[in-house]
Write a structure and sequence with these properties.
Helices cover 64% and strands 5% of the residues. The chain is mostly helical. The chain folds into two domains: 1-83 and 295-333, no CATH class; 98-293, no CATH class. A five-stranded mixed beta sheet has the order 1-2-4-3-5, with helices on both faces. Helix 1 packs antiparallel against helix 15 (297-325), helix 10 (181-196) packs across helix 12 (217-238) and helix 10 (181-196) crosses helix 13. The longest helix is centred in the first third of the chain and has 35 residues, at 85-119. The protein is elongated, with a radius of gyration of 29 Å.
């Protein structure tokens, strides 16, 4: 195996145990401080994903830290403890196949979202003024969001938001003719909350970080926690401000029933996520002030300290794994091994022959 293949393989091997560690640490923190606001829980899960993605890069620290002593014989490093080259290639292939499949789904979802936007019809602001509140219209203009009406043939994709620099909100045409005006207001307000929170950028970054981690079961649990916290954060922006929580929960059920439980394209953000809808409805029905609990200064200090220590431990462990698997000793030990020994002392002169 080449040096690059070895580094990629070591990244995957480090991620096998580092991702569960980050997931469990975030889960324990949320158990220790329950009923946090949804936006804080989303930020914590996103931080856990970032640590799980950056931690395995400690392999590169091992390579960089020992670059002075191993730059001349980097080709010798590839003769690691994994002696069978075919087994190493097979293991690397098995770890990369889920990542390639996840990348394919991400690319296909982006193409599908672009195709839906090209087929959608732009909704003029004059049409929205008759159905949306003024505060919501001002927010749409402030964030330069465009609202499109998707054809009835693609209405099963559901309302969703896509686009980074120019956000587009796609709403099925059947929601514009719905007799319940609150349903349309709740849909637009929810999707606009994604735009206000810059969720599309964070969602895209999280999907990119989840691509190489697709082989791990914990990545799917982490992805579901991220989606649930993100949607609940947008629900909190709408319920109580635009609509009462009970009415907003009823609108979510109406939208889910209209869309026949379909999901939006992968890189887009939709209001009706079937995997999280039940928990969101339950949180809205049992709404209480505790659900908007924030972190104190002490909690923030402990969180930053824990994250710093955890990142240091993960990077250091990745470096140790690199040195162990490549059979390369620590730099100071390696320098002693590579130090040229002094020449042996000259042999003593021969003794003169004895005279009798």
């Amino acid at each position: 195996m080449s040096a690059l293949e070895q580094i990629v393989l070591w990244w995957f091997l480090n991620a096998i145990w580092e991702l569960p560690v980050c997931f469990v640490c975030c889960w324990l923190f949320l158990r220790f401080i329950p009923n946090l606001a949804a936006k804080i829980r989303h930020a914590l899960w996103l931080a856990a994903l970032t640590l799980a993605f950056l931690g395995p890069f400690g392999t590169l620290l091992g390579l960089w830290g020992d670059s002075k002593t191993m730059s001349s014989d980097l080709g010798l490093v590839v003769t690691a403890r994994v002696n069978s080259s075919s087994a190493s290639h097979l293991l690397l292939l098995l770890l990369m196949l889920p990542a390639l499949y996840r990348a394919f789904l991400l690319l296909r979802g982006g193409i599908a979202a672009s195709h839906l936007i090209s087929r959608a019809t732009f909704v003029e602001p004059d049409t929205l003024e008759s159905v949306l509140p003024k505060d919501l219209l001002l927010s749409i203009k402030r964030y330069k969001a465009k609202i499109f009406s998707t054809p009835s043939a693609t209405s099963e994709c559901g309302p969703f938001t896509c686009g980074l620099t120019c956000p587009s909100i796609l709403i099925p045409a059947n929601l514009f003719v719905s007799p319940n005006r609150q349903t349309l207001v709740s849909v637009v307000a929810h999707e606009l909350a994604h735009v206000q929170r810059r969720d599309m950028l964070l969602h895209l970054l999280s999907e990119i970080m989840l691509v190489p981690l697709a082989f791990h079961p914990f990545s799917y649990w982490l992805r579901s926690r991220l989606a649930e916290a993100r949607e609940m954060a947008c629900d909190a922006c709408v319920s109580g401000l635009m609509l009462p929580p009970i009415d907003y929960a009823r609108c979510l059920l109406d939208v889910a029933e209209t869309l026949n439980d379909k999901r939006s394209p992968l890189p887009a953000l939709g209001i009706s996520e079937s995997a999280t809808l039940e928990h969101r409805i339950q949180a809205l029905v049992t709404f209480s002030p505790l659900l908007s609990r924030t972190l104190t200064a002490w909690n923030k200090s402990c969180l930053v300290l824990t994250a710093s220590v955890l990142l240091t431990v993960l990077l250091s462990s990745g470096r140790k794994t690199f040195l162990w698997m490549s059979a390369v000793p620590e730099p100071h030990v390696r320098q002693q091994m590579l130090r040229v020994p002094p020449p042996p002392p000259p042999p003593p002169p021969p003794l003169p022959p004895s005279r009798r």
